[in-house]
Amino acid sequence: MSTRTDFLIKFLQVISWITFIGLSIQTGALIFNFIFTQFNPAAAKDLYLGMDLSELFGQNEIYFGFLFSFIIVVTAIKAYLFFLITQIFSSLNLVKPFSEKVSKLISQISYYTFSIGLIGAIAHRYAQSLVKRGYDVDSAGQFWNDYSAFLMMAAVVFVIAQIFKKGLEMQSENDLTV
């Protein structure tokens, strides 16, 4: 394995750790904002990243709770997805790349990626229904506008997971015959 490949893998591992930490902080901030809004309704005017859901909170706290729950869940699953990616980099052995642990991690990544896409699509539809009822929730869309990309990525990662499982089977058979 070349030093360039080693460097690239370490670089991607650092980037995935930074992304995981950033998404974890974002999830924590969103949870804090949600709880803080329950005690101080005026805080709904300037939520995380300038999101203004004060109109929705003032008119219907249940709708606000559902919408904000979607935001928190999508962000939390994205954070966990990047945690799984960091685990792949920690477990990856390029000399013998097909391992049971990496195979399971890739499968989990495909499932969580699909979950993000599915929950994002549901949240998008829910936000659209709130807009039809006259609520201004456009600022919340930034958390799931990429749901279709996650659905497509889930399909690609699922195929990669299946290829990886087959590679693991072939590597096991090869180890048995040698």
From TrEMBL:
It comes from the Bacteria. InterPro entries: DUF2975. Pfam families: DUF2975. The keyword Lipid metabolism does not apply. The chain crosses the membrane at residues 12-36, 62-89, 109-127, 147-164. The keyword Transmembrane helix applies. Keywords: Membrane, Transmembrane, Transmembrane helix. It comes from Algoriphagus alkaliphilus. This is DUF2975 domain-containing protein.
